[in-house]
Amino acid sequence: MGLLAGETRRGQAEMLWQQKQASVYSLFHGNALESYPQNGEQTLANLRVVIADIRSLPMPELESARFAFFDDLFYRVSASYRSGVTFQQALEKLGASYGPPDSQSGSSQQYASWQRGDVWLMLMEQIDGQLVLQLEHTPLARKVRTSNTETYAAYIRAKRQYVTLP
Are 34 and 148 in contact (CB under 8 A)? Predict the structure, then answer.
């Protein structure tokens, strides 16, 4: 679709989506608690992460996609395939762009993965048969996890400063 993980800025992605007539149906900040057990807190916004849910993508085999940006740089996408697209069809199309996968399952719940430089890519079939494609820029994803930890730590420090009166 023309986006490069670790290089494309959010504004560039938004212009491309507009040119391709894709629709942004949700835009929000990332959840700093995504990697932590939930102790009553539902979400804690990480303002350095912006998530965009997109529909009407210019790729007919894809139903929707969730793009993530860290400090305005594209670092992750999770895309759902339309029903009817088989694992083999998706694998062949990805193979034409990325070559043969580095690893692949032969079980009933199929997956294939590629590591190309700083980008990790995985095609997987979920239990319900839905195909999902995930792409992640690994160095930026590490920075997101660090930023989530820092955001959570700042939240805990701020929480301790307040005393609840009876």
Answer: yes
What pLDDT, on a 0 to 100 scale, did the predictor assign at position 1?
A: 62
* Residues 140, 99: Cα–Cα separation, whole Å: 24
For 35-55, the pLDDT digits (tens) are 766 666 678 899 999 999 999
Q: Do 120 and 113 touch, CB atoms closer than 8 A?
A: yes
Burial of 149 per CB tally in 10 Å (0-12, 13-18, 19+): middle
Taking the model in full, what pTM does it have? 0.89
- Say which residue the tokens 């719940």 belong to: 109
d(CA 134, CA 3): 14
> Cα 128 to the chain's mean position, in Å?
20
